[in-house]
Write a structure and sequence with these properties.
With about 600 residues, this protein is mainly α. It contains 15 helices and eight strands. Helix content is about 70%, strand content about 5%. A six-stranded mixed sheet has the order 1-3-4-5-2-6. Strands 7-8 form a two-stranded parallel ribbon. α8 links the parallel β3 and β4.
Length: about 600
């Protein structure tokens, strides 16, 4: 477009300079400098033809002058043409420059467009590559997830297959052990029957000889006793005859027998009265069921020796069990709390400070009484146990007995821990309609004796129903401890403890000088394949059992072992007893729920 415009401009300038009517831009300018100029165009004017004629005449009149003028005009035209040609060349150079500039601009724009297109293509290709890589990554991720899912499903199937195989192996092993036990029982039964038949045959052979020997021995013993009886009656008859025949001897004999009878009766009744007085003044109160103190002051040495021996024994059992509380297995937090109370009580006694009263509550058989014993032993106090159910039968004497109990407790030089079990039996709310006047008086007497902080007696109450206690009794309590049912770890430790106590140490003689002379040696129990895993399995099955129920379960295991033929405890027999006791526990719970 620029070329066409430039060519048109140049042709227009050339035509204007040369006075040509038509100019062609595409053709070259070929003209001779000496060519005659074209005749000027006729001027259309308003002059008359006469002017033209005058000019023609003048031209004809002066031909040389006209020629010079024409020549000068030609020279002028040549100069103008030369200048026009120079201008044309300058314009042509400028047009060429413009054309080159336009070409450069177009090439620059083209290169920019190409670069932009290339960058767009590169970005598009990069975007395509990124999308392709993202799609490939998504595909790989989905494939990896499928592989992981397949591996998990495969591992789950393998684990299920392994568990099924293990269960099958365990079932086959149990079946094998059961069959093996049955075979062993049958073998032992057959062997015992054969031995019994042999012994019966031997007894039958020696029965006749033994019978004859027994008959001869009985005849000899009978003759000897008959002779002794006859001799005795002969002497008695002679003495009676001598007394009956002599009157003085008869009077003396009758008087002596009468005086002897009177002396025996008087001595017996006097000793009974004196002993009851001594027992009332110096003896142990009748409400006490169990105590670490001696019943009388002179029995203190013996009781201290026995308490020292029992404390040493409990320490040994505690060290063997890895438990600082002897045979008491409690929750770790509760055990730590009781140990802190024992240390605090011991320090309180050493600093002559008042003691703190305690309340133990929880389900039956969770170790409240045993914990109280261990608390007294660790704190260095004497220990006394009474039951709340013993107060009601005393009637009007209950008040006197309670005062005697507290007076007796104050005589302890070491301090006394008075443990009242089943405290809700007589310490319940005083507004109960079924509470007798004697029970109210006994409750008031205990409240009177515990109104102030004591430096001699620690009162420890135990109950299964803490909500039934009187508000005044609850106000006198300083420490409240809950004894929950044992957890799985505690049940495992209890099973291990009672397995050692009732099974492993069954049949062992207690230490004593003449114990081996008067007691028959018990048969020891043989333990086979009783591992900790079996005990943990039993602990899991005995959920909801108290410590007392676990002890009874192990006692039932001991009875089942003694009831077997070979006196051997194996896992099969142990599981049978545990399952039976578990069913019995569930049945008791159902019965209790129905009663409620």
């Amino acid at each position: 477009m620029a070329r066409v415009v430039g060519a048109g401009l140049i042709s227009a300038l050339a035509s204007a300079a040369l006075g040509v009517d038509c100019a062609y831009a595409d053709g070259p300018f070929n003209f001779s400098p000496f060519a005659s100029p074209p005749p000027p165009p006729p001027q259309a004017s308003s002059d008359s033809p006469a002017a033209a004629q005058s000019g023609t005449a003048a031209a004809k009149a002066e031909p040389p002058r006209v020629f010079d003028v024409i020549k000068k005009q030609e020279e002028t035209r040549q100069i103008e043409f030369t200048s026009k040609g120079a201008e044309f060349k300058a314009m042509q150079a400028q047009a060429e420059t413009e054309r080159q500039k336009v070409i450069y601009e177009e090439q620059k724009k083209l290169s920019q467009q190409q670069a932009q297109i290339k960058s767009q293509m590169a970005r598009y290709e990069d975007e395509l590559a990124r999308k392709r890589m993202q799609a490939e990554n998504e595909h790989h991720r989905a494939r990896n997830q499928e592989l992981v899912k397949m591996q998990e499903e495969s591992s789950i199937r393998q684990e299920q297959a392994r568990r099924a195989t293990e269960e099958q192996i365990q079932a086959q092993r149990r079946q094998t052990e059961r069959e093996k036990a049955n075979i062993e029982r049958e073998t032992i039964r057959v062997k015992a029957m054969a031995e019994a038949e042999g012994r019966a045959h031997e007894a039958k052979l020696g029965e006749e000889v033994n019978r004859r020997m027994l008959v001869e021995r009985a005849n000899a013993e009978r003759e000897k006793w008959l002779a002794a009886i006859n001799t005795t009656f002969d002497h008695i008859g002679g003495g009676l005859r001598a007394i009956l025949t002599d009157q003085n001897k008869m009077v003396v004999a009758v008087g002596g027998v009468t005086a002897l009878a009177a002396g025996i009766y008087t001595t017996r009744e006097g000793a009974r009265v004196i002993w009851s007085y001594v027992d009332r003044i110096l003896g142990q109160p009748s409400l006490i069921r169990e105590s670490s103190r001696g019943k009388y002051p002179w029995s203190g040495l013996f009781s201290r020796g026995m308490s020292t021996l029992s404390s040493n024994t409990s320490k040994a059992s505690a060290s063997n069990n890895g438990n600082g509380f002897g045979d008491v297995i409690l929750n770790p937090s509760l055990q730590k709390r009781i140990q802190q109370l024992a240390s605090a009580t011991a320090n309180t006694k050493s600093h002559q400070a008042p003691f703190r009263n305690m309340l133990f509550y929880g389900p039956p058989g969770t170790g409240k009484t045993m914990a109280a014993r261990e608390l007294a032993r660790k704190s260095g106090l004497d220990y006394a146990l009474m039951t709340g159910g013993d107060v009601a039968p005393l009637g009007p004497q209950a008040v006197t007995k309670i005062h005697q109990l507290f007076d007796w407790g104050k005589k302890s030089k070491r301090g006394l821990l008075l443990f009242i079990d089943e405290a809700d039996a007589f310490l319940c709310e005083r507004n109960k309609t079924y509470m007798s006047e004697a029970q109210r008086s006994a409750l008031n007497a205990l409240l009177f004796r515990t109104g102030d902080q004591s430096k001699d007696i620690v009162l420890a109450l135990a109950t299964n129903r803490p909500g039934d206690l009187d508000s005044a009794v609850a106000d006198r309590i300083d420490e409240v401890l809950e004894f929950p049912l044992p957890g799985e770890d505690e049940r495992f430790k209890l099973l291990k403890l009672y397995l050692d106590k009732y099974i492993a140490k069954a049949g062992a003689r207690k230490p004593g000088l003449f114990s081996h002379l008067f007691k028959k040696q018990q048969q020891k129990i043989e333990i086979k394949d009783m591992t900790d895993d079996i005990l943990r399995e039993a602990a899991a099955r005995t959920e909801g059992f108290s410590g007392r129920e676990i002890a009874k379960t192990m006692a039932s295991v001991q009875a089942a072992v003694y009831g077997s033929e070979n006196c051997v405890l194996d896992p099969i027999l142990f599981r049978e007893v545990v399952d039976y006791k578990g069913a019995e526990h569930q049945q008791r719970r159902k019965m209790a729920a129905n009663d409620e």
